[in-house]
Amino acid sequence: MTRPPPKKGRWRRRLKLAIALIFGVIVVAAAAGLVYALYPRTMPQTQTIEARLQPAELDRLRQVADFDGIADATARSVALFEEAGRVIEHPRCMNCHPRTDRPTQTEAMRPHTPWVTRGADGGGAPTLRCSTCHQAENFEASGVPGNPKWRLAPIEMAWQGQTLGNICRQLLDPARSHMTREELLHHMAQDELVGWAWHPGANRKPAPGTQEAFGSLIKAWLDTGAACPQ
Hints:
Helices cover 40% and strands 3% of the residues. Strands 1-2 form a two-stranded antiparallel ribbon. A two-stranded antiparallel ribbon has the order 3-4.
């Protein structure tokens, strides 16, 4: 009588068969992948890619001379500030004048992402400074805006939620603006961080007019008595 093969021998044969099967599947899959990779196919047509987003259309500011027809000096001063207010109330400026310690961003002035806070000097918390992401100039590759002075305005100069008249009175109050009238004019007309509002990069809409035109309106407003809207 023939003896059945030992159980240990049968187990080894089955293991070898399973390994051979797995190896065969791997070889077949590799061969199929190689064939697919090398199979000739039509290449996609090249297309022109814009290197950067087109700047938004620039809104214009009225010139100082446009207000010469207003005979009453106080009314003319108010009208000049209201025209300058188109810049002041624009998101490019408002985003850095939040009413909380968290800045806002975009045209919708939504809370800043990631979550950041004002910090003691307006330049962010010690653990996450504004300069961590915002460099000395706009970074076009990512769209992150930048300026050497990037920081928030003092909390005393919070503009969001305020009327234009209240903002006007804030500007004229040295205890809140931390500026004399001469310093205020210089800030509006020449400060480079204010000037960023007209060169915001990416597809952000710049503030109306130019910094020069804005500064001229502020100077004329101050020269006519710096009257504020109600």
